[in-house]
Amino acid sequence: MPVCRLPVRPDLKQLHRQAKELLRAFHAGEANAIGRWREHQPESSDPAAAKLVDAQLVLARSYQASSWTRLVHAVKLADAIWRDDLNTVRALITGNSALIHEHVLIRSDSDWGPPMTYAANLGRDRIIRLLHSHGAKDLQPAAGRAALQGKTDTVRMICELAGKPSLEKWSLAGPAYTLSVEGTAVLFALGARIVVPEGMDRNAMEHLLGTDSRNPPAKHRILEMYVEHGFEPPDTPVMALHRGRIDLLEAHLARDPDLLTRTFNLADVFPLAPACARDPYTAQGTPVHETTLLHIAAYFDELEIAEWLLDRGMDPDTPAAMVDDFGGYTPLFSTVVSQRNFWVNYGKGQPDEARFTRLLLGRGANPNVRASLRARLEEGHGGGPLREYRDVTPLAWGEQYHARIFVSQESLRLIEARGGGR
């Protein structure tokens, strides 16, 4: 049976409800409930004799907790840290000192970690001091998570508690992943380095260019901070795009009149980030292997650069290269299925305005281009098999794409209103 995972902010009422629903399902003889019972409570597998306390134990074990009490403590501790409730945290760790060193969400694959690290994500400085006074040792992970979340005062406080250690060997990957300008700046101020004796911190670059986040101004500023601290970026058009440097793009265009029709491979798109360039069809949305600067701008939500490209005469229907009978899709496809859509709908609560789709349609993009695409999701988004979508229009691409979280419904509406077919 699959393992259950507590969300970042679990809800005790919901767990009570889950236990009652599990008991009802077991009494009714539902296969899933019987399977969970056999796995987690085989000594008590008679549905007629099962009580709520039995269902609570089965549920707790499915969440990798040793008991219902342990699961309840986990949820109460998480809730208290969220609410900055110092007294409840003190009572919980006093009653069970082991909680200080165990993951708040129980599962060891949670980056939110033990209580101090969990509190650092939220900037709960009073609670961090309390936990430190009771023996919490996870100072470095806590500081890293505080930087990732942009909690600069918390980072400085934790470093004080740790005795002001040298940060020369600390990676900048955490705030790179969240595109936290503040977190990056505070780590630099405390001594972190982007260029280490072995060379460029490629882990940070992997996280910066491969992040799920879309915030071009923040990415631009972080890259410039890297440059200010010794990073020598490759002089390529795609790196100029990543940096938001239209002046550099102007220089590239002056040297290369074919720039607006050139296609770039995955290694070009993710310079100094080889892990992001392993599979040409693995993408956060529409693949960017062998695509143009306009496709790449859509992938990274670089709207200003897209406008510059179009103003310089780039064809909005410029196609991706053909590779093994797949390709030929235009930048419009890249706006329909995009990581940007994921963040609009689920991460930041912003309305789905489909700005990139509007721009391309407004510049004359053809809504009825047909192309064939291969695509698979990154492991962090569920992975899965390589899928093929043959002879699809932008509208059909969005309607058929299996991971709906990446699809912009507003883009589909706009394309259909412009006469786009299937």
Note down, in words, how this protein is organized.
The longest helix is centred in the first third of the chain and has 16 residues. 44% of the residues are buried. A hairpin with a 2-residue loop joins strand 1 and strand 2. By secondary structure, the protein is mostly helical. It contains 23 helices and four strands. Among the domains are: 52 residues, no CATH class; 140 residues, Ankyrin repeat-containing domain (Serine Threonine Protein Phosphatase 5, Tetratricopeptide repeat), CATH 1.25.40. It has a two-stranded antiparallel sheet. A two-stranded antiparallel sheet has the order 3-4.
Strand order of the largest sheet: 1-2
Q: Assign a percent range to the helix content.
A: 40-55%
Oligomeric state as shown: single chain
The CATH superfamily name of the domain at 278-417 is: Ankyrin repeat-containing domain
Question: What is the number of helical segments per DSSP (H or I, 4+ residues)?
Answer: 23
N→C terminal distance: 40 Å
How large, in whole angstroms, is the Cα Rg?
25 Å
List keywords for this structure.
single chain; 422 residues; mainly alpha; Serine Threonine Protein Phosphatase 5, Tetratricopeptide repeat; two-stranded antiparallel sheet; 23 helices; 4% strand; flat
Task: Write the topology of this structure.
Blueprint: H1 12-27, H2 31-40, H3 52-62, H4 68-82, H5 86-95, H6 115-122, H7 125-133, H8 139-148, H9 152-161, H10 173-177, H11 181-189, E1 195-196, E2 199-200, H12 202-209, H13 216-228, H14 237-243, H15 246-255, H16 266-269, H17 293-299, H18 303-311, H19 331-336, H20 339-347, H21 355-362, E3 371-375, E4 387-392, H22 394-400, H23 409-417
Antiparallel strand pairs: 1-2, 3-4
